[in-house]
Write a structure and sequence with these properties.
The complex is a heterodimer of chains A (842) and B (307). Chain A is built from 32 helices and 20 strands. Chain A has a 5-stranded mixed β-sheet. In chain A, strands 11-14-15-16 form a 4-stranded parallel β-sheet. By secondary structure, chain A is an alpha/beta fold. Among the domains of chain A are: 107 residues, no CATH class; 291 residues, Anaerobic Ribonucleotide-triphosphate Reductase Large Chain, CATH 3.20.70; 88 residues, no CATH class. In chain A, strand 19 and strand 20 form a beta hairpin. With 307 residues, chain B is of the alpha/beta class. Chain B has 2 domains: 231 residues, Aldolase class I (TIM Barrel); 58 residues, Alpha-Beta Plaits, CATH 3.30.70.20. Chain B is built from 11 helices and 13 strands. In chain B, helix 6 links the parallel strand 9 and strand 10. The radius of gyration of chain B is 20 Å and the shape is globular. Chain B starts with 5 loop residues before the first strand and ends with a strand. The chains are: A alpha/beta (842), B alpha/beta (307). Chains A and B meet through helix 26, helix 29 and helix 30 of A and strand 1 and helix 4 of B.
């Protein structure tokens, strides 16, 4: 995507449009006050339609089921709204999609979780009728999904003890949770979407060209096939003509379903206009009706329609799999700018109204809720969907893509102060300092670590070596917390998360796990007999190698057994209509020009904790000789009970994040050697090297719970570091540059992402001169090879007060790893951790 | 070298100690005793024990292990006190404290060790026009060490600043002048009686040293600690303005106003010192803006450093 020619932007004028209009104050308040309620509508529609069409190709069954969801979908337009389209008729309604997790639904019903509060400060409501419906659907799906295949194969191939290695959420099918509590948690694939392998990222092309056009293109291919026959891959004999036609026909069904749904919104708006509260509102409703009548069926004619079109498409893909998370919104400044600038040139829109509309859009995005009671409650804030927005970057000719929309998006984000979507800025050399300063000011005002900053060039360069053309490499966006994807990749492979800290704990105990009290790994030497830190480090590598091998075999079996959802979704193919038309298969089935990008992702967790622990062993045991290895092991196994002095020694040993080579060298070495070990075996499906990822926040509490005390002074059960390359909480004591220097020592180019969270006090950003320095700091970090930086601004007093008076701090946001969350919604343990995090004051 | 190269902190990412992102090296020991001082631990040129009362659990271990019997715990609230006359700063208590609630302020170092630490952030200096700032305490009390360190940094291409009270001999000052890119020079009061009363020292050497620096051609920024009830009088402001005008005739010399704050309160408690000015009210922003205008009207470039 080429950058549009730069025009001067009046940044001050845009910044001045920061006041929230009364309309949005009301709408935002309604959202804050709305209870979270569980909705079963999609489950009923989907299950019914899917069951009725037994025997048809799955892609067609999915398409019909999707149509049913859309046809049955209840509508809601709230007073004052300018952008419409939502999941259901509740402001904060959570669709529970039983097909994705039937056993989990049954467990939750049995345990009463749906009625239980989701955290100390929020609640989930599910009425009796909904509970009954969900139970009925779940009972069908739990029998239908062939979960036993994976489990039986895993046990057959890897032995029953293999199950000890997994967290309960590692059940991809979520069919038979083997454990109610995470016992081990060495790895587990994360699961958006849960039924499928990996995930899709969308460039919102259909929202721009219109679904009518997509239908025409699909129809033309169907006609061509009738005339000329079908192409079948000589190697795979797939797809067969009927498979391909079924998929294409499914695409048309999906397009029509979305168009009809939008038209129902048009009807509703027209109806509401008749009894509108004021002439102004009447005009707005008429405009909404006209928008919905036109998009997403046709190509948008202006900015408002474009925004509405993106909204509809975004909801549609989420409605297909309501529990799907991480449906990113692409590079919205690039997508919207042509419409905006045309309107502006024609005098049809002001920056102020463009911001107002974007505010309305952000509100709709934030209203989305997710509910995943088992795992997510303890991991991070409820309701997080991670619909990232990526902005700026350079095009293939190294032109700066930043435009006026980039400013507008940041202004809107800072005004609305929502925890999501997170805005990610692709920072590069050609980006103006004025824009960076604007972004830092927005970050300061938002107070929730948003926007975050990314290394644009590194993201673009990483895939050039795979022979992917530069113009495609330039077109990338972020996903989740926080990786990134080329838009041409369409689909990425499955996720496995490796809990490095657990592996280290096992190495420390000669392959034995103190928690499950089982010998889970090979014997790699007793720590009591070790003579140096290097001995322990070698034992760690051996354990890592062993578990990486098992992980690979596990992945191979499970991925081979998986079916449905993303794999068969015709709607997914609508989003990638061009390749779907040529290949006749979903990208995840191989219908993609760049299968290399579908290689498995391995998320490593806890490099910081392992490095700090090794450094602690080196310093306390082998250098200062404060104790023998045997004594340290005893202290750790006693969770420091009776060993306070030793614990303090370990806590005060050098820590990563302070630009201290003593430990940073260890960090770098275990990273480099880890890469060798984890990339040793190819992805069993694509045959390519697994893609590595040092991320991010979400599992740090979850993994932490299953890990005992460590030689870094950490207490059993507490969270591990909150990002991929963040420091141990409260242990980066030398300020931002020292943390950045530590993080820039390892070569991050191999990784698909790594997360660095930093806290900075307000005072470091509150003048233009200081923002200039912070901007230079960000640039310097990126120049040194840093990939991601998220700056969190707030005072500890504020956080402590928010704990006491949560109702007064609804707008207080906190970033935890790659996430934003409403601070008052977080579990107390997480609140404590954030208070504890070092505030970098000067 | 007669000095023992005593510093008490190296602080990274300083945004208010000269241009750009800087690393500030705090020298220990100061001839002045400004009653508003925010760094009381910098005053003595000897090492001393600090007591971090907020993390102390009052377990009493320090009392029992101090060879000088200088540490006592008295009263129902179990507050630790240290008899500073008895204390030899042997650090037995600090090394023995499980909570690390006791620490030693001040450590001897070498030019190379400090340089190594300073040099770590050079990428950030280069991108922001930053560098190293020597502060304190009074840098000039260890002029040989300061000169050697400044020389080392300058030779490595790092921009150098010195924040000083100017209270030193000409000989001491002359040692460092060649290696200083920018002086951050404190002027507290131009009324010598006021100066003596509140800092314990005369301002005469300070003023003559300022002339010496100006004559050497070195760049100077005047720093004016603005202390309500001490040096915020009309008389002092007029004198400051006149002095600044005089300086500006030789070379551009801006003034930075450093408003009083009491962030140092905790450090007074930790070093068991009396903080006479702990309760002073902070000057209002309006008042500071007024002072800024006062200087600006006289054609003097003026900045308020927020805190």
């Amino acid at each position: 995507m080429k950058a549009v020619i730069q025009r001067p932007v009046d940044a001050d004028a845009i910044w001045a449009c920061g006041e929230m209009s009364p309309r949005l104050v009301d709408l935002r308040k309604q959202w804050e006050d709305a209870p979270v309620s569980i909705v079963g509508d999609s489950s009923v529609s989907f299950t019914k339609a899917y069951r009725e069409r037994e025997g048809l190709p799955i892609s067609l069954r999915f398409a019909y089921a999707f149509k049913q969801i859309m046809d049955d979908s209840k509508l809601l337009i709230r007073e004052g709204e300018l952008i419409v389209g939502q999941m259901n008729d509740k402001i904060r309604g959570v669709d529970i999609f039983t097909a994705e997790c039937p056993q989990s639904v049954l467990n939750n019903i049995a345990q009463g979780s749906f009625d239980r509060k989701m955290s100390e400060t929020s609640s989930a409501l599910c009425d009796e009728e909904t509970t009954r419906i969900l139970k009925e659907d779940a009972e069908y799906w739990v029998k239908y999904i062939p979960v036993h295949d994976s489990m039986s194969s895993l046990i057959h191939e890897l032995g029953p003890e293999h199950m000890d290695l997994m967290m309960d959420r590692s059940m991809v099918y979520d069919g038979i949770p083997l454990r109610a509590e995470p016992e081990m948690g060495i790895w587990g694939p994360t699961n958006p979407p849960r039924l499928g392998r990996g995930r899709s990222l969308y460039r919102f092309e259909p929202a721009k060209i219109g679904l009518k056009r997509v239908k025409e293109l699909v129809q033309a291919e169907l006609d061509r096939m009738d005339k000329e026959g079908s192409f079948m891959s000589p190697i795979t004999n797939r797809p067969t003509p009927w498979e391909k036609k079924a998929l294409l026909k499914g695409m048309i069904i999906c397009c029509d379903a979305v168009i009809d749904w939008a038209h129902r919104y048009a009807d509703l708006a027209e109806e509401m206009a008749k009894t509108a509260s004021s002439p102004e509102r009447k005009a707005e409703l008429e405009r909404i009706a006209s928008n919905c009548r036109w998009v997403p069926e046709n190509a948008p004619r202006d900015y408002w329609e474009a925004l509405q079109s993106i909204r509809f498409i975004h909801v549609a893909v989420q409605k297909e799999q309501p529990m799907r998370k991480e449906t990113a919104l692409n590079r919205m400044d690039q997508d919207l700018y042509p419409y905006y600038i045309k309107d502006k040139d024609e005098g049809k829109i002001t920056p102020e109204f463009a911001i107002e509309l974007f505010n309305c859009f952000l509100l709709k995005v934030r209203e989305g809720e997710a509910f995943d009671p088992e795992a997510r409650a303890m991991r991070h804030s409820q309701g997080t969907l991670l619909p990232n927005v990526t902005i700026c970057g350079m095009d293939e000719d190294d032109n700066d893509c930043t435009n006026e929309m980039s400013y507008i998006i940041l202004r809107s984000m800072a005004t609305m102060k929502f925890s999501e979507p997170t805005i990610y800025i692709r920072v590069h050399d050609k980006m103006s300092t004025d824009f960076l300063k604007f972004a830092i000011k927005a970050n300061m005002e938002h107070q929730g670590g948003c926007p975050a900053f990314l290394n644009d060039k590194q993201g673009t360069d990483r895939f050039l070596e795979y022979g992917i053309p530069k113009e495609l490499c330039c077109d990338w966006q972020t996903s989740g917390c926080l990786g990134y994807h080329l838009n041409c990749a369409q689909h990425i492979g499955g996720f496995m998360h490796l809990n490095l800290v657990k592996i280290f704990e096992i190495a420390l105990h000669d392959g034995y796990d103190p928690r499950t009290k089982k010998q889970l790994g090979p014997h790699t030497g007793k720590f009591e007999d070790m003579k140096s830190m290097e001995d322990l480090e070698q034992a760690y590598y051996k354990q890592l190698d062993y578990f990486a091998d098992r992980m690979n075999k596990d992945y191979e079996i499970r991925q081979s057994n998986e079916i449905v959802c993303t794999l068969e979704s015709a709607l997914n193919c609508v989003m990638y209509y061009d390749t779907a038309i040529s290949y006749g298969m979903n990208p995840s089935r191989g219908g993609t020009p760049y299968p290399v990008l579908a290689s498995m992702w391995v998320g490593e967790r806890g490099t910081t904790d392992v490095a700090d622990s090794l450094a602690g062993v080196k310093k306390v045991v082998f250098e200062d000789k404060k104790c023998t290895p045997a004594e340290l092991l005893k202290a750790i196994d006693a969770n420091w009970e009776g060993y306070e002095e030793l614990k303090q020694e370990c806590l005060h040993a050098p820590k990563y994040g302070n630009d201290n080579d003593y430990v940073d060298e260890v960090f770098k070495r275990i990273t480099d050697n880890g890469i060798q070990i984890m990339q040793k075996r190819p992805d069993p499906i694509t045959g390519t090297k697994p893609l590595l990822f040092k991320g991010a926040a979400s599992a740090h509490m979850y993994f932490g719970r299953v890990i005992g005390a460590l030689p870094n002074g950490r207490v059993s059960g507490t969270p591990i570091n909150d990002g991929g390359v963040s420091a141990m909480a409260g242990m980066d004591l030398n300020g931002p540059t020292a943390l950045l220097n530590s993080a820039a020592k390892f070569d991050s180019r191999v990784y698909m992402g790594n997360v660095l969270n930093m806290k900075m006090s307000h005072e470091n950003m509150d003048t233009d001169a200081k923002r200039n320095l912070v901007a230079a700091m960000i640039r310097t970090y990126i120049k040194k090879g840093g990939w991601h930086l998220q700056i969190n601004v707030h005072s500890q007093e504020e956080l402590i007060d928010a704990r006491k008076n949560p109702e007064e701090h609804q707008d207080l946001l906190v970033r935890v790893g790659g996430y934003s969350a409403n601070y008052v919604d977080l579990p107390y343990a997480l609140q404590d951790e954030i208070i504890q995090r070092t505030s970098h004051t000067t | 070298m007669s000095e023992n190269n005593l510093i008490y902190d190296i602080q990274k990412f300083c945004l208010d100690d000269g241009p750009g992102i800087r690393t500030t090296v705090f020298f220990k020991g100061c001839p002045l005793r400004c009653k508003w001082c925010a760094n009381p631990e910098s005053q003595s040129k000897e090492q001393e024990i600090g007591h971090h009362y907020t993390i102390c659990r009052a377990c009493g271990k320090c009392v029992s292990i101090c060879p000088q019997e200088a540490v006592t715990m008295i009263g129902g609230d179990k507050k630790i006190t240290i008899d500073r006359a008895k204390c030899m700063v042997c650090a037995t208590c600090a090394n023995g404290c499980i909570q690390r609630a006791l620490s030693v302020y001040g450590y001897s170092t070498t030019v190379e060790d400090v340089f190594k630490e300073v040099n770590k952030d050079r990428d950030y200096y280069e991108s922001t026009g930053g560098g190293v700032t020597l502060s304190g305490g009074e840098v000039l009390m260890q002029a040989d060490f300061a000169a050697a360190l400044l020389k080392r940094c300058k030779e490595a291409g790092i921009h150098t600043c010195v924040e000083t009270s100017g209270y030193a001999t000409e000989a001491q000052l002359e040692k460092i002048i060649p290696y200083v890119d920018l002086f951050l020079y404190d002027l507290k009061s131009l009324n010598n009686e006021v100066h003596k009363e509140w800092t314990g020292c005369s301002n005469e050497p300070i003023l003559s040293n300022l002339d010496l620096i100006m004559d050497s051609g070195a760049k100077v920024v005047i720093r004016f600690p603005y202390i309500p009830g001490v040096n915020d009088t009309e008389e002092n402001l007029d004198l400051m303005r006149d002095k600044l005008r005089e300086l500006n005739r030789k070379a551009p010399v801006p003034i930075e106003i450093m408003p009083y704050h009491n962030y140092g309160t905790g450090k007074y408690l930790m070093t068991h010192r009396e903080y006479e000015l702990a309760q002073l009210e902070r000057p209002s922003l309006e008042k500071l803006e007024e002072v800024k205008r006062f200087f600006a009207d006289a054609g003097i470039s003026c900045v308020i450093l927020k805190n």
